[in-house]
Amino acid sequence: MVRIVLTKFGAISENENRLILNIFHETFDRLQLHDRELIDVLLFERSSSLSAYLQQEHRKSGVVSDRFDDDFIAMHDAWRGIPRISVSMERLNQLPQQVFVGALRHEVGHAVLHGEVGYYLLPKPEAFDKLNMSKEYVANLLYLTSIAVKDYEVTRLLSSRGFEKDQRAYVDYLLTPSDEYATTWLLAKRDRSMKVLFVVSCLKQLCSAIALNKEPSKPLQVQDIYPFLPERLTTKMNRILYEVRKFQVGRTIENIERLAGLIKEELI
User: Fold this and answer.
1) 53 pLDDT band (50/70/90 cuts)?
2) Nearest CA-CA partner of 49 in 104, 94, 93, 10
């Protein structure tokens, strides 16, 4: 059995502790084929405390990319060499039960597939090697590309092991239309480089969605989810997603290289 070391920040009840540990243990047990022995789990009462903690950790780890996850529910990393899952109880407790469970299982999937520091200290893809962009911009582009690939792999893994129902609830929640996305697009589209980052950030949810698509004859259509985007752009995004469907779980670095190539070809 995986040993879970749980650390609490703030007022978190024993009932909450038990519920989360039970979900984590059940998920690890059903995923089976992994060699994880130790997992750090950090529970934060408030999202602001988690955000401050992660900013400090990013500085210590020398992370170059910006953070695009200020409003996340939970996240996984392995900067210290072992899998670590950080959870905002404030955000988690706002969710419907099925989404709550799906979000936690999703992070366990990352711990299984991407629980080593090599999945975070990523080599620059060849497609990004000669971009006429700043080091910081390329780091952001690589970060967003990598999380799209990782989320695709995790969703495919979990759905193949009997967790499709809660993963579908979680992905549907992430794809719920938001005025904030449309507003962000209005700002991003004024600058070509920011437009690319916005589109690649959308791939995170879209790649998870296609991992759940069981009907190749009825593929997900980007324009149905983001109707505010121009048709020419959604056509390119649909072409990218068509190729992502061919990615195999467990070939993360190769998949990141392939997605980077598609992004350069279609968007840059």
Assistant:
1) confident
2) 10
Q: How far is CA 259 from CA 30, 141, 236, 247, 255, in A?
A: 29, 11, 13, 9, 6
- What is d(CA 258, CA 265) in angstroms, rounded to the nearest whole number? 11
- Six-digit token string for 247: 């990615």
Rounded Cα–Cα distance for residues 10 and 46 (Å): 8
- Token couple for 97: 């039960």
Alpha-carbon gap, residue 245 to 234, rounded angstroms:
17
pLDDT for 102-122, tens place per residue? 999 999 999 999 999 999 999
CB 45 within 8 A of CB 1: no
At CA 167, angle to CA 253 and CA 153, rounded to 5? Answer: 10
Task: Please give the domain boundaries of the chain with CATH numbers for all domains.
Answer: 1-121 (3.40.30), 123-268 (no CATH)
Kindly tell me the number of DSSP H helices and DSSP E strands found in the chain.
Answer: 11, 4
In angstroms, the CA 247 to CA 180 distance is 30
- Quick check: 219 and 88 in contact, CB under 8 A? no
CA–CA distance, 55 with 60 (Å, rounded to integer): 9
